[in-house]
What does this fold into?
Amino acid sequence: MPNAFDRTPFSATFSQAAPGLEAAEWLIAAAAQASPAGRLLLSQAAASLVNRGWISSPDAVVEQVAAHADLHVDRLREEVEQLARSGLLTLFDGKILDIAGCLSARPTAWRFHPEGHSAVHLVGPLAALGVARGLGRPGVFRGRCSGGGDSAPTVELHCDSQGVHTRAPETLAMFLPAWPGTTYPSEAIAAGRIFADDDALSRWQADAQEPPGLPLPSYLFPFAATDLGDRLGAALESIFDALAIDD
It folds into this structure.
């Protein structure tokens, strides 16, 4: 298995980011630093997940990219290890679990339904802000209010190919947890929460003893969906559109 997440190249990102925005800033910085070969691998893994609903093994992804690019298999395997150290791939037991802390090969509470394709599981609600632009496909993000258990209402974000344009309910709110960078970024993104309204957000914060992070109440959410969503979407787009291979 590749080495654990290495936060060293992103130390400045963590020190400058506001609490709750560390994972978003990491993703933006990591995408900007990804090599051309790394972008090819990430694009192929994302295409495999979206087109088939599951991701091939890292070796299979390497072979697929090698067959379509003038790159040696050994060089691509080294790149897989680098992507794992940077957090842009989460690997376990010879499998790809997460891509860029956003797309999950495992079932989660968060799903993006791109038009004309099967639903894709997302690591956490933060991913919903940029996934439509990242994949270049409009669709609907669905999850359940994090404060209501099994009877919690459904929340939705409706996205065009550039990002979020409407939400249901309009009172939707979100919480982004603080992250010191000591774990994989996918764990921080998975710890995010989404709520049907501000009351549900406030109750959850009180029950969780006011965890560190960034609450986005309903009046702030549209600004975050636009500004943060634009930046996240551009970052994901840069690592998901490098190669289009139909499986």
Observations:
- Residues 147 and 200 are 6 Å apart (CA to CA).
- The mean pLDDT is 91.
